[in-house]
Fold this protein.
Amino acid sequence: MPADTPAYTPAYTIDTVTDLVQPHQVHRDVYTDPEVYRLEMKHLFANTWVFVGHDSQTPNKGDYYTTQIGDQPIIQVRHSDNEIYVLYNRCPHKGTKIAIDREGNTGKFFRCPYHAWSFKTDGCKLAIPLKKGYEGTGLEETVSGQGMKSVGAVKNYRGFIFARLAEDGIGFEEFFGDSLSSLDNMVDRSPAGRLEVAGPPLRYMHKCNWKMLVENQTDTCHPMVAHESSAGTAVKIFEDMDWPADKPKPMAMEIIAPFMSPYEFFENMGIRTWPNGHGHTGVHHSIHSDYSAIPGYFEQMVDAYGEEKAKQILGENRHNTVYFPNIMIKGPIQQLRNFIPLGPDKTLVESYIYRLVDAPDQLLARTAMYNRLINAPTSMVGHDDLEMYERAQEGLAADGIEWVNIQRLYEDGEDFDHEAVENGTTERQMRNQFHAWVKFMAPQPAPAQAEAAE
Amino acid sequence: MSFPAREDLIDFIYDEARMLDEGRYTEWLDLWMPEGVYWMPLDYKQTDPDLVTSLLYEDQFMLRLRVERLNGARTFSQKPKSRCHHVIQRPFVDVMDAGANRYVTNTNMHYVETRLDDQFLLAITATHELTVIDGKIRIANKRVDLLNCDAAFGNIQLLP
Ligand code: FES
Ligand SMILES: [Fe+2]
């Protein structure tokens, strides 16, 4: 490097990056800037509780599943004590990924394919070949001598595995609070109170920032516009068909037609926000409210929970629940979408579905249909969503306007530390996410005594 | 034709690919039996279309919707339109059962789809279940397996 080249100074640091968020707008650099992205990976995805996988993906001892938390390669594995462990997918010797396939069974231990260092399925070091080569070298005192590294903290909440990379930080219950009611509702819809993953996820690559996808989950003003070509055309074709009024609509129509609901429908459905960036659409009703009953299911639910509780569980029809930072679940149809960041302008969306244990198969058939009709790379609905994100990612390069507006139904002095229910077309949940973004980008306060024990 | 020759079945597969490449979708829909389903599995060697996710599992209502949407005025992801291209290997005729009026072909293809500056290639195997009605060959069912079905894709907008 020539001597007069100034040292590289990053455009943003942990102290300045939060200037990009204002109450009613955010600077475009939060979607496009590589340094902002790097800070997100380093801080936001380390300080928050991020979804890893479902425990039914690793049902037997030694089963593992590989994924990412932010940009970190991760293994979820079931240890001999039957607990789920979450480890960095990196050999402590030279960095080789320990598992490269998406899932498998490793038996009682992991064995690195490069020089055969081996590790128990909780990450502890088991053996190193030619051990005498390390005698007296001090390997035991290095991090490499300790085995595979675990993440900071792991929680198995009713089968859903979350992890916090940071050693210290906010506790699981405090981070999610009452938002766990959406996960509860999804699991309670099984008469056995249990879900099982159903097949591999859809994997859909998006050339846009991960936050655009998360924001879209509570964007109730786009379906009737962006999806007119699919949902609107479906309604039109169906009207041409002279379908008898008393005959149940085809399942595909039940799924796709509500996307054309008018603004009032979405206004009245309501949006609820919780502290730490979580929130959901569909407080009072949703696009999932009017699905036909599946024969026998209600009776099974009454047997399992009693009539009152069964009605209460099934009466909840939340549309999309966002768990900050990067997943969305649909309780009424047992779907989870994971928005995995791969770069400032690249996001992998994995859409999983789950079987309600002990419920009729027709429910799962509807869920599988929903997944492929709406969220597949081959989906007519998905095509228009992706088109919008990619156009936005490209359009943000324009220098005329540097801010992205999130002002719909904005009020001065909004308090995101308390739960609130608002008009269903508010962009408050997007503002809530950015409020949490600022909070968790920052260095976290030292843990309180009680939490340190968790 | 009440009993197609092997050659007729093979020509049919070529003609269908050409229709898709030339965007003659209305004609293409007419090739189908009313109960026909177009299946594109998500998993390698997937056997269950119903209780796990597929990429496509579409009946005639959905296929018609797909075709009408491609031509719609507000189909934003098709402004500008995609184009596609099939290069097909000579189909194998695996079942020729005139008695049951059932014929099955298996065809390897390279499918190319393009829009704006993006172009991608899919290696696919199409399995056609065919039948003859009123002297014409018709598609009873079609299954399209992608060699890399478990890879992450961007938009696949036309019909491989
Ligand atoms: S890199 Fe794993 S044992 Fe050497
Ligand atoms: Fe959408």
In short: The two ends of chain B are 28 Å apart (CA to CA). The first helix of chain B runs from residue 6 to 21. Chain B has three helices and seven strands. The mean pLDDT of chain B is 97.
